[in-house]
Design brief:
Distance between the termini: 65 Å
Number of strands: 10
Helix content: under 10%
Radius of gyration: 24 Å
Structural class: mainly beta
Largest sheet: 6 strands, mixed, barrel
Number of helices: 3
Strand content: 25-35%
Number of domains: 2
Length: 213
């Protein structure tokens, strides 16, 4: 008789002799990730979203579908009406230096690219949450280590127009003063650092390079 693709037969041990051929395992197939959305709300620390959809549902005990939505932290410095946000964002908000490549392309296309600068900090304290980030977009947090010197770049649009500084860069702080930072994308990853110096010409190393948000 016909072979019915009933997955329960694997547990009851009464599958047809040709079950594997007639009912092949078909895993879930999903699309590529969409582009990241804009920030959910302007002028505050919030999140952006990317989505993917199911192309093929799993069948015959095939591998289940992965998550269809991912969120990552972000900050938008302009309101929907085009006005620049004015509030101070403290502590310093940082992300991976790799995020700057897309940001620079966007700024150049808009004709808004301005010269930035870098600040070197010595990391003093880091919360354990930085090491417990397993999403692909949070792996950069594993490079944060106590005692290490890190290089953080300030560039458009985080470069605040009137002051020509990024929020939380430690300008005006006293020598050896502990300053606070927060990793965007994981609220459990934060800590303190000391400002070492400002570099008007950036030459940040690729591994320990970060970006003000």
């Amino acid at each position: 008789g016909p072979c019915y693709c009933d997955q329960a037969c694997a547990r009851t041990l009464d599958c047809c002799h040709d079950y594997a051929q007639a009912c092949p395992v078909i895993p879930c197939v999903v699309s590529q990730w969409s582009a990241w959305s804009g920030c959910a709300e302007p002028c505050k620390t919030t999140y952006r979203v990317r989505m993917r959809h199911i192309i093929q549902e799993p069948r015959n005990r095939g591998e289940a579908c992965p998550a269809l939505e991912e969120r990552a932290g972000c900050v938008e410095y302009w309101t929907q009406q085009g006005a620049e946000c004015q509030q101070s964002l403290i502590p310093a908000l940082i992300t991976t230096g790799g995020f700057g490549k897309a940001r620079k392309k966007r700024a150049a296309a808009d004709g808004n690219e301005r010269a930035g600068y870098c600040v070197e900090f010595q990391l003093v304290a880091i919360t354990p949450g930085c090491l417990h980030s397993h999403h692909s977009y949070t792996r950069w947090m594993h490079y944060l280590r106590e005692g290490h010197t890190v290089c953080v770049e300030c560039q458009h649009p985080a470069l605040h127009s009137p002051s020509q500084h990024c929020y939380g860069d430690g300008t005006g702080s006293q020598k050896n003063q502990l300053l606070h930072w927060q990793a965007v994308g994981n609220h459990r990853c934060k800590g303190t650092w000391r400002r070492i110096r400002q570099l008007d010409t950036c030459s940040c190393p690729s591994v320990h390079s970060f970006l003000f948000i």
